[in-house]
């Protein structure tokens, strides 16, 4: 699709979905879902080899949402892509509904890995990439981590193994918005110098603006040309991106919008869901 205007329209619709579904559920994580919209839009609407009508096709690329609490962005993207009806979004976190608070690979078409315990999704993605290598398969693996998530030790075990096994079919995005549930990363547990750390582990590291499609696609193209190394894309983003009163506010990490908040958010985004 690499028509940026079309991608921006899709992203705007995804943002409407996110705030609407979290408002309806009265719980969820808007801030870190909104910050990752452009990354997932680029992957699902251009980059990845996928088929919503055949979610389990063998040669499909895999995506793992390692920061599973940002499930609303994944669900919104999957619904927009046609994996399931958009009506399901308004049943988020409802008893008996398809869409749980964290991704469930057994109950939701298009979800490759059940995630929520931070760091485990990254490890699973490494395992998937290794399986593709062992089978001489063509499919690639993409994974999204949160910046607070990389405070988990399991992330660094996975980072070490990905380099050891030369998983050049693995592309990780770090959603680096600088905030987590308790405040700034640097105050909770400083992750810097994050670029130097991944480089020291042996990753091909690329720094980008995570809301700029040109930079996202350039990073993806570079990753495909890289041989013998996994790629880590450090994507600088804005928590709550697209909704002015949510942007760069840690309080919106896990707070559902009120009726008034929803109305104001949809007004900024240009109308209803």
UniProtKB/TrEMBL annotation:
<dbReference type="GO" id="GO:0016740">
    <property type="term" value="F:transferase activity"/>
</dbReference>
<feature type="domain" description="Transketolase N-terminal">
    <location>
        <begin position="8"/>
        <end position="270"/>
    </location>
</feature>
<dbReference type="InterPro" id="IPR049557">
    <property type="entry name" value="Transketolase_CS"/>
</dbReference>
<keyword id="KW-0479">Metal-binding</keyword>
<comment type="similarity">
    <text>Belongs to the transketolase family.</text>
</comment>
<keyword id="KW-0786">Thiamine pyrophosphate</keyword>
<dbReference type="InterPro" id="IPR005474">
    <property type="entry name" value="Transketolase_N"/>
</dbReference>
<dbReference type="Pfam" id="PF00456">
    <property type="entry name" value="Transketolase_N"/>
</dbReference>
<dbReference type="InterPro" id="IPR029061">
    <property type="entry name" value="THDP-binding"/>
</dbReference>
<protein>
    <submittedName>
        <fullName>Transketolase</fullName>
    </submittedName>
</protein>
<dbReference type="GO" id="GO:0046872">
    <property type="term" value="F:metal ion binding"/>
</dbReference>
<keyword id="KW-0808">Transferase</keyword>
